[in-house]
C-alpha cells in the first residue's frame, strides 16, 4: 500500500481536512466533505486491491459520514435557507466579537 493511489488519497484527505478546518464558509466546508467522499472511495479501492479490509471498512463508514456532511452543508434545503438568513449578520457579529476581545486583552 504505497502506490500512487494511496498518495492521491492521502493528499486529498489532508486537503479536505484543511478545507473544513479553515472555516472559510459553508460552501467550502461542503466541498471539503465532497473531497472526503472522493478520497474515501479511493481508500476503499486501494484497500480492496491490497486486501486491507480494515481500511475498506473504516472508509465505507467514513464515506457515509462524509456524505451526510455533503447533505448538511450543500444539499439540505432547510440548512441552506437558515444560512442565507444568518450570513448577512454573521460578519457583523464576528466584528463585534473581535472588538470585544481586543478590549478585553491586556495591553502589550
Automatic annotation (TrEMBL):
Write the record's keywords in alphabetical order, separated by commas. Membrane, Transmembrane, Transmembrane helix
TM ranges: 6-24, 31-49, 55-75
**Upper classification of the organism:** Bacteria, Pseudomonadati, Pseudomonadota, Alphaproteobacteria, Sphingomonadales
Q: Which domain of life is it from?
A: Bacteria
| The protein, known as | PRC-barrel protein
